């Protein structure tokens, strides 16, 4: 999810499409939060680890 967010950020910046940039930021933030929760050992969506 983080990688997809970064890809959308880059595409949004290069093409000037602001909605892609916004969605990219949202996906990158959510992905980072899920990654941190999984790394700390919290169950995320029923899984012990989130990749």
Q: Report the strand count.
A: 0
Mean pLDDT: 83
Span between N and C termini? Answer: 9 Å
Tell me the overall shape: rod-shaped
Radius of gyration: 13 Å
**H/E series, N to C?**
HH
Number of helices: 2
Structural class: mainly alpha
Summed up:
This protein is mainly α. Helix content is 71%, strand content 0%.
Please provide a written account of the structure.
The protein has 51 residues and is an all-alpha fold. 71% of the residues lie in helices and 0% in strands. It is built from two helices and no strands. Helix 1 (2-15) runs antiparallel to helix 2. The mean pLDDT is 83.
Question: Helix and strand layout, with pairings?
Answer:
Elements: H1 2-15, H2 18-39
Helix pairs in contact: 1-2
Descriptive tags:
single chain, 51 residues, mainly alpha, 2 helices, 71% helix, rod-shaped
